């Protein structure tokens, strides 16, 4: 028997290599697959009509393609992790500060009672968010900022300023602290959440490897090459550039805080219901978290005071009654039932002013909209704090004359924005359904 020729053996090996990898088994035996060829085409396709590259060039191309496909940006997760760790640290600090003033039992009772109005406020903001379409991560960030960071800054700053004013001014200093200093500190701390979202941190540090072919993780190393121009370093050009705010090109271009495009050559970019609703949602979320922590503090402090009075009455032999927790009930009715939307209403003005400043084409309005919104929030907050010192009748008068109309205006605005967006969506659907 003669051995097979060299050409026949090569043809057999080549046929086994080209055979499918999942060959069927026959007779309880296994089919031995032939040598597999490396499929480099799935990473770097060969150009049409070109010869294969050299091994060094091929390895470099494979490495670059693998980096582009399998590595992710390290900058954006690092920013997210920094924000999460910062808010977590502020949360631990604020829990310790509240527990020091209320005790463990008062803290648990305050947290439980503060949870009662929270679903109603979040439900209203979620309904308005159907118009704004703010991403969940931004709303959660604003909620955490208000509950942790803003309350930490407000408690520390309020304690220092109140003690300083009381020591130098006496009762007048206490009145100034409650009516002027406290609204300024709290509204500034809550409104900072919106500015943090607009900072171009993520856009500056985000990996751009998929666009220009450079590897990811620019925070760790930087390859030599031409520098890309910063998108935030130039003023906008165009027919409507002189009407824009000077700080707008340096802020993060969020999709829900952009002006509506002009309808053709005529007209100007303007605010739209989505941008206005987005400002209200962001401000309301930050204020909702702030109100939750503040309610827990005040309710826990009232419960601790009532519990101490109850212990004193037990020593005197008095029977227990509901009057033993009168202060807790009054605080819950005032903060949880009558005014759960007070803080969201205040900070919604700040968010509304910022949204107008970022989307209007009028230069004078873009410059004064955000400061006016913040100033109105501070004035409304100071009036609300001052109404608590006017007695029951004075408080109810301020509540009926000021708070109820403002709350009704906010509800009307939310209904208008929702109906306007639904009308535009229905009109767009009808246009797309018309035959062409």
What does this structure look like?
It is a single chain. The chain is mainly alpha-helical and 436 residues long. Helices cover 68% and strands 0% of the residues. It is built from 13 helices and no strands. Helix 3 (75-114) packs across helix 5. It starts with 5 loop residues before the first helix and ends with a helix. Mean pLDDT is 75; it is low at 1-6, 37-51, 68-75, 203-225 and 230-245.
Gist of the model:
By secondary structure, the protein is mainly α.
Tags for this entry?
disordered N terminus, single chain, globular, mainly alpha, 0% strand, 13 helices, 436 residues
| Biggest sheet record | none
User: Which segments are poorly predicted (pLDDT under 50) over 5 or more consecutive residues?
Assistant: 1-6, 37-51, 68-75, 203-225, 230-245
Q: Please work out how many helical segments DSSP would assign.
A: 13
Work out the helicity level.
55-70%
Mean pLDDT: 75
The geometry reads as globular
Annotation, overall tally of beta strands: 0
Strand content: under 5%
What is the alpha-carbon Rg in Å?
32 Å
The SSE order reads HHHHHHHHHHHHH
C-alpha termini separation: 78 Å
Decide which structural class fits the backbone: mainly alpha
């Amino acid at each position: 028997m003669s051995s097979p020729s060299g050409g026949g053996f090569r043809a057999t090996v080549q046929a086994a290599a080209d055979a499918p990898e999942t060959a069927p088994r026959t007779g309880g035996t296994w089919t031995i697959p032939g040598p597999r060829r490396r499929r480099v085409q799935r990473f770097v396709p060969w150009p049409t009509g070109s010869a294969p590259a050299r091994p060094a060039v091929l390895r470099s191309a494979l490495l670059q393609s693998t980096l582009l496909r399998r590595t992710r940006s390290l900058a954006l997760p690092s920013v997210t992790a920094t924000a999460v760790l910062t808010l977590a640290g502020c949360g631990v600090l604020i829990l310790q500060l509240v527990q020091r003033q209320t005790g463990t039992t008062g803290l648990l009772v305050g947290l439980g009672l503060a949870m009662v109005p929270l679903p109603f406020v979040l439900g209203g903001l979620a309904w308005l968010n159907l118009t704004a379409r703010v991403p969940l991560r931004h709303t959660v960030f604003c909620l955490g900022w208000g509950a942790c960071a803003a309350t930490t800054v407000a408690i520390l700053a309020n304690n220092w300023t109140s003690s300083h004013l009381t020591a130098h001014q006496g009762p007048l200093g206490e009145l100034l602290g409650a009516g002027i200093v406290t609204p300024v500190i709290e509204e500034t701390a809550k409104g900072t959440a919106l500015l943090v979202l607009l900072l171009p941190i993520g856009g500056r540090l985000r990996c751009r490897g998929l666009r220009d072919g450079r590897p990811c993780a620019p925070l760790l190393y930087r390859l030599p090459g031409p520098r890309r121009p910063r998108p935030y370093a130039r003023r906008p050009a165009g027919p409507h550039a002189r009407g824009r705010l000077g700080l707008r090109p340096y802020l993060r271009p969020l999709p829900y805080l952009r002006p509506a495009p002009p309808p053709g050559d005529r007209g100007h970019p303007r605010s739209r219901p989505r941008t206005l609703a987005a400002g209200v949602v962001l401000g309301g979320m930050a204020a909702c978290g702030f109100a939750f922590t503040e309610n827990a503090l005040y309710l826990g402090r009232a419960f601790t005071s009532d519990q101490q009075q109850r212990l004193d009455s037990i020593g005197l032999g008095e029977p227990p009654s509901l009057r033993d927790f009168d202060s807790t009930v009054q605080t819950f009715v005032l903060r949880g039932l009558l005014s759960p939307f007070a803080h969201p209403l205040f900070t919604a003005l700040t968010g509304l002013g910022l949204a107008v400043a970022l989307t209007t084409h009028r230069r004078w309005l873009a410059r004064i909209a955000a400061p006016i919104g913040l100033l109105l929030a501070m004035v409304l907050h100071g009036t609300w704090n001052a109404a608590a010192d006017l007695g029951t009748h004075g408080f109810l008068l301020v509540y009926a004359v000021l708070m109820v109309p403002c709350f009704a205006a906010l509800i009307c605005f939310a209904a208008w924005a929702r109906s306007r967006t639904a009308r535009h969506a229905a009109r767009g659907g009808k246009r797309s359904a018309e035959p062409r």
